[in-house]
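Sanity check

After download, print the first record. It should look like this:
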Amino acid sequence: MLQVVVALLTIALLTEPRALAQEHGGMHGHEHDKLHYWYKTLRQPGTGYACCDNKDCRPTTARLRGGTIEVLVDGEWTSVPHNTILNRTSPDLNTHVCAPKGPWSPKPIFCVILGFGV
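Expected structure tokens:
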């Protein structure tokens, strides 16, 4: 019985942040402060530039569509360039995106950290 309770709590803890990320659609600045200390350590592959400039990084959700990985950036599904994916695990085990705020189309992505299941 204890194992069932532990399993249910683990599932709840792992899915709650994903649900919040989906609800807020990777909105600029949303929940940035919770992992700001960690975001500051992230560097763009190839260039070494920081992924995060003030509030560029935040939790989001990802999907695989036709062989392309997409993440929600400010409520819009955006294709992820392969050279922006970091081979790291986030502290909360979820997907995160670092992208600036602006009216660009397509939206530029600095870095993406993929969570489990993507």
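If your output differs, re-run the checksum step. Summary of this record's structure: Residues 2-113 form one domain.
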